[in-house]
Design brief:
The complex is a heterotrimer of chains A (358), B (303) and C (297). Chain A contains 8 helices and 20 strands. Helix content of chain A is 24%, strand content 35%. In chain A, the strands form 4 sheets. In chain A, strands 6-7-8-3-9-10 form a 6-stranded mixed beta sheet, sandwiched between helices. Chain A has a 5-stranded antiparallel beta sheet with strand order 13-12-11-14-20. Chain A has a 5-stranded antiparallel beta sheet with strand order 15-19-16-17-18, with no helix packed on it. The longest helix of chain A is centred in the middle third of the chain and has 18 residues. The radius of gyration of chain A is 25 Å and the shape is elongated. Chain B has 2 domains: 43 residues, no CATH class; 238 residues, MetI-like (MetI-like fold, Orthogonal Bundle), CATH 1.10.3720. Chain B is built from 13 helices and no strands. Chain C has 297 residues and is an all-alpha fold. Chain C has one domain: MetI-like fold. In chain C, 68% of the residues lie in helices and 0% in strands. Chain C has 14 helices and no strands. In chain C, helix 1 crosses helix 14 and helix 4 crosses helix 8. Classes of the chains: A alpha+beta (358), B mainly alpha (303), C mainly alpha (297). Chains B and C meet through helix 1, helix 3, helix 4, helix 5 and helix 6 of B and helix 1, helix 4, helix 5, helix 6 and helix 10 of C. Bound molecules: adenosine-5'-triphosphate and magnesium ion. The site of magnesium ion has 2 residues of chain A, from helix 1.
Chain lengths: 358, 303, 297
């Protein structure tokens, strides 16, 4: 229903969005993630119509929208700072857009009251934004989007100004809202948990390019490249330099320190190519049941989180490796731990950073 | 790509229309009332225009005459520079002193601030010039007070060419309030912990004033000095009212602007007056430039 | 000029609570000094008001601030002391000042909006030009403007005093508003764009309502400066029935000056009165305006 074809954005000579292709189905919840400055907001604002599109095409419902005015695109946006009009009451904040569109008073009133009801802000309708708490302002901002009955909702880091507890609560409410009204939602966030829990599909951006898109689990399980692998998942994935002892066909023998193991791969490579093995800290195995032996981990630091224990250490060849262990373990700095991994939990990246194993 | 170019061109054009729409009044004003007249006045300054016949080109004759053959110009310059060089420093010192006194955490600050500001709000009006004329007249308030207090019979300060200018300086200093407000705001910006640190270092109040307050206040002093100086060069109303528009007695209050006014609007020597106007503009510009150059040596900026 | 002569952009933080003046003696001394300054500053003003309530015979023999037998005689003498009643002159002043306020606020706000919120070709260039005019003394344009208005037949009407203000010639107010508008979050404009507003509606419904402090500051200063202005009316108005109160007062000095000081003081008091009332009403606004922008008076 919404599609971007080779969309570009230049600010002067600087290309900020560099050819993005994306197609979003009706009712889908899509989350944009990526490091700061990668162009998430810019992309969102181009969809909204706040930023002219320098190249490529944006279409909604099969109609080209590049030149269409923001208010004509059937889109509503919730801003990071909420951008509530400080001089208008909550009611007026929500009705302003409808009045601009010259909707009938009765219909405006019906919509505002319905949205207020959904968001449980009816008692606040006569207040001014400065008389509201952060969470209430957030709801009004969402309410202002809802009344317009848009086909697409855009959110730019809507929860980043809330405290941790409220953030979780509002996150759940946004998920519920999506389920209830079934509109398409595009959501920008820094927060991995938000991305993983809300998204039907995550789009990972870096420097104006889509690095990978897929369901949250797809991206977690099969990161397309080293960047995505490192970006998604917390604590961050371990990356170990490994060598390819032998390669060819669809399997390769990988050497890490003294140990040798075999992985199935998608493309051939030179024996001299430096490879990277990625293992998430939570996938490191400490029993004797590992398919791949990583040797002994000399622990340098331990963090006890209660439900988990995080151990920071070094392998025999000096490479750093972090391990997340379930439960409370009696280990401390100076100890050593035999570590290994299951083949399914390993990711192999070529020197170009792309995923090598299937 | 052609699509995109067209799109952005359109988007830009849309804003062009609105932009120039909103800017139109200013733009008209700028072109018709500023840029045009600036050029015209420069041209006029090179003519003998009198408003009656078409302007005749005279080259730089107006300027050479001003420089070499115009005793009233010299008088006007002397009067104006005396006024500027006396009134601005006095006003600033007074304003700074009062601001420092007010900044000591006394209660009633907002009362004093308002009261001290009042003269500078109304000081430029004709009414105050009228009042000044009476206060410093021979039988005026000042002499009455001197008589009552000391039995001293003062002269007419206004009618005496050796004192008349100083009554105007006094009037300017009387209007120290707005500079004081700016100083006060500047003083409030100086972080208290600097003073605390200095006290711990054993610096006495006087030393603190000269070593901390004054250096940190130099940007504000600079700002006030530039603004007040430009304003002092342009002073007009009080001199006009007090001297009945003559600049008297015997040209002792012939402010530059007053001379300019007389040349332009009583003698209708528009060409000559334009040259005078340009000299004033150049003096102000030169003074400002000089201030900025000197600022490097004494104004302390954080950034 | 914006580079170095920038007004220290600050409001007033809470007064330092430091008990700097330790001893009661020093405190008392400071108060005595401030009260003395207050007295010297205000004495002439109060004396002028007192004298306007005195019979003429008393004026030159009394330095006291309390008239013995207050009378409003001088006011009625002064009010009709010119061939045209002062009521006419006050109305003229009021009309001009109100028009100037409207013109300044409207045109400067429009220009500031264009400079801060609209992207159009040449914006940077025009903005630089606007900054350039900030410090241009009006003497540079005075004579050609006069000749132009003379040729237009506008001299001896209020047009030269008012029409330019509708063309945002007071760059200072444009600058003031530019500074203020820059502080209004851009996301509000964008929210309004999403709500279907074009530039005009954003200006009217979002920017202006949020800018009341700066609009009020500009309005009050415009009014006071215009009310007080002497030079422009002096040049442009010839007939006494078109005079402003300031011009009338100065004419009155010539006609009655040496003989009827009471009436002169009465009219002086009245011409200052509107400013004084505005001062009482908008004291905070005025003082903050000075403190944050460095306006000269
Ligand atoms: N108006 C602009 N002019 C020039 N460059 C801009 C403009 N807006 C954004 N950029 C640049 O474009 C890049 C992308 O900015 P954008 O705001 O989209 O990043 P983001 O992914 O939203 O970052 P964050 O997570 O910090 O919000 C940045 O490098 C930014 O500096
Ligand atoms: Mg962003």
């Amino acid at each position: 229903m919404l599609s971007l074809t080779q969309v570009q954005k230049r600010f002067g000579a600087v290309e900020v969005i560099r050819g993005v292709d994306l197609s979003i189905a009706s009712g889908e919840f899509v989350v944009f993630v990526g490091p700061s400055g990668c162009g998430k907001s810019t992309l969102l604002r181009m969809i909204a119509g706040l930023e002219p599109i320098s190249g490529g095409e944006l279409s909604i419902g099969g109609i080209r929208m590049n030149e269409t005015a923001a208010s004509q695109r059937g889109i509503a946006m919730v801003f990071q700072s909420y951008a509530l009009y400080p001089h208008m009451s909550v009611y007026k904040n929500m009705s302003f857009g409808l009045e601009t569109a010259r909707m009938r008073k009765a219909e405006i009133d019906r919509r505002v009251r319905k949205a207020a009801d959904i968001l449980q802000i009816t008692p606040l309708l006569e207040r001014k934004p400065r008389q509201l708490s952060g969470g209430q302002r957030q709801r009004v901002a969402i309410g202002r989007a809802i009344v317009r009955d848009p086909k697409i909702f855009l959110f730019d880091e809507p929860l980043s100004n809330l405290d941790a507890e409220l953030r979780v609560q509002t996150r759940v409410e946004i998920a519920k809202l999506h389920a209830d009204i079934g509109a398409t939602m595009i959501y920008v966030t820094h927060d991995q948990v938000e991305a993983m829990t809300l998204a039907d599909r995550i789009v990972v951006l870096r420097a104006g390019i889509v690095e990978q898109q897929g369901t949250p689990l797809d991206i977690y399980n099969k990161p397309a490249n080293r960047f995505v692998a490192g970006f998604i998942g917390s604590p961050k994935m371990n990356f170990l330099d490994v060598s390819a002892a032998a390669g060819g066909g669809d399997a390769a023998t990988i050497g890490l320190g003294a140990s040798r193991f075999s992985m199935s791969i998608r493309r051939g490579f030179d024996a001299s190519e430096p490879l990277t093995l990625g293992i998430r800290p939570e996938h490191v195995v400490t029993g004797g049941t590992a398919e791949i032996d990583l040797g002994t981990l000399a622990i340098v630091h331990v963090e006890q989180l209660g439900g988990q224990t995080i151990a920071y250490g070094r392998l025999a060849d000096g490479q750093a490796l972090n391990v997340v262990l379930e439960g409370q373990r009696r280990i401390s700095a100076g100890d050593s731990l035999p570590v290994g991994a299951m083949a399914g939990g390993c990711h192999l990246f070529g020197s170009d950073g792309l995923r090598l194993n299937s | 790509m052609p699509n995109a170019a067209a799109a952005s061109a359109r988007a830009v054009q849309g804003d062009d229309l609105a932009g120039y729409g909103f800017l139109l009044p200013w733009l008209l004003g700028f072109l018709l009332l500023t840029l045009g007249p600036v050029a015209a006045s420069f041209y006029l300054s090179l003519t003998d225009y009198s408003g009656l016949s078409a302007p005749n080109w005279v080259g730089i004759e107006n300027y050479t005459r001003i420089a070499t053959d115009d005793p009233r110009f010299i008088t006007a310059m002397t009067v104006t520079f005396t006024f500027v060089l006396l009134s601005v420093p006095l006003k600033l010192i007074f304003a700074l002193g009062v601001a420092v006194a007010l900044n000591k955490g006394l209660t009633g600050l907002s009362f004093f601030r308002a009261v001290f500001y009042l003269p500078s709000l109304i000081g430029g009006s004709v009414a105050i010039a009228v009042l000044w004329r009476q206060v410093f007249a021979g039988d005026g308030l000042l002499n009455q007070a001197l008589h009552t207090l000391f039995g001293y019979e003062g002269p007419s300060w206004i009618a005496n060419p050796s004192t008349s200018l100083y009554t105007l300086v006094l009037l300017a200093v009387w209007q120290f309030g707005s500079s004081m407000i700016i100083f006060l705001a500047g003083l409030r910006q100086i972080p208290q912990d600097i003073y605390e640190a200095a006290s711990i270092d054993g610096a006495q109040p006087v030393r603190q004033f000269f070593k901390i307050t004054l250096p940190l206040l130099t940007p504000v002093i600079f700002f006030n000095a530039v603004i007040q100086t430009i304003d002092a060069f342009k002073a007009f109303t009080s001199a006009f009212v007090i001297s009945d528009g003559t600049g008297g007695p015997i040209d002792s209050t012939l402010f530059y602007t007053l001379y300019l006014y007389q040349e332009a609007f009583t003698n209708f020597r528009f060409g000559y007056a334009s040259a005078l106007a340009w000299i004033l503009v150049l003096i102000i510009a030169a003074f400002t430039a000089l201030s900025f150059l000197s600022a490097r040596y004494w104004v302390h900026y954080d950034d | 000029m914006t580079e170095v002569v920038r007004a220290p952009a600050i409001a007033f933080p809470a007064a330092p609570s430091r008990a700097d003046i330790g001893s009661p003696w020093r405190r008392a001394f400071a108060y005595a000094l401030l009260l003395a300054v207050t007295f010297v500053l205000l004495y002439p003003l109060l004396w002028m008001v007192a004298s306007s309530l005195r019979p003429d015979s008393e004026i030159f023999h009394s330095t006291s601030l309390i008239p013995q037998a207050p009378t409003f005689d001088a006011y009625s003498r002064g009010w009709n002391g010119l061939s045209v009643g002062f009521s006419q002159l006050f109305l003229n002043s009021l009309l001009i000042s109100v028009l100037v306020v409207i013109g300044n606020v409207m045109s400067c706000a429009m220009a500031a909006y264009a400079f801060t919120r609209l992207r159009f070709r040449g914006r940077g260039f025009w903005f630089a030009m606007m900054l350039g005019t900030l410090m241009l003394p009006q003497h540079a344009v005075l004579i050609p403007q006069y000749i132009m208005f003379l040729k237009l037949g506008w001299v001896n009407t209020i047009l030269p005093l008012t029409i330019p203000k509708f063309l945002a010639v007071d760059a200072f107010f444009v600058f003031l508003m530019v500074q203020f508008f820059r502080g209004i979050p851009r996301e509000l404009d964008e929210a309004a764009v999403m709500d279907g507003c074009g530039p005009l509606r954003i200006f009217l419904k979002v920017i202006l309502p949020l800018s009341t402090p700066v609009l009020a500051t500009a309005a009050v200063f415009s009014f006071i400066w215009t009310w007080d202005d002497f030079f422009a009316p002096l040049i442009y108005l010839n007939d006494i029935e078109k005079y402003t109160a300031q011009l009338g007062l100065r004419t009155f000095v010539d006609s009655a000056g040496q003989s009827d000081w009471g009436a002169l003081f009465a009219m002086s008091t009245l011409t200052v009165l509107p400013i004084f009332i505005l001062f009482l009403m908008f004291q905070r606004l005025l003082i903050e305006g000075i403190a944050t922008t460095g306006m000269k008076r």
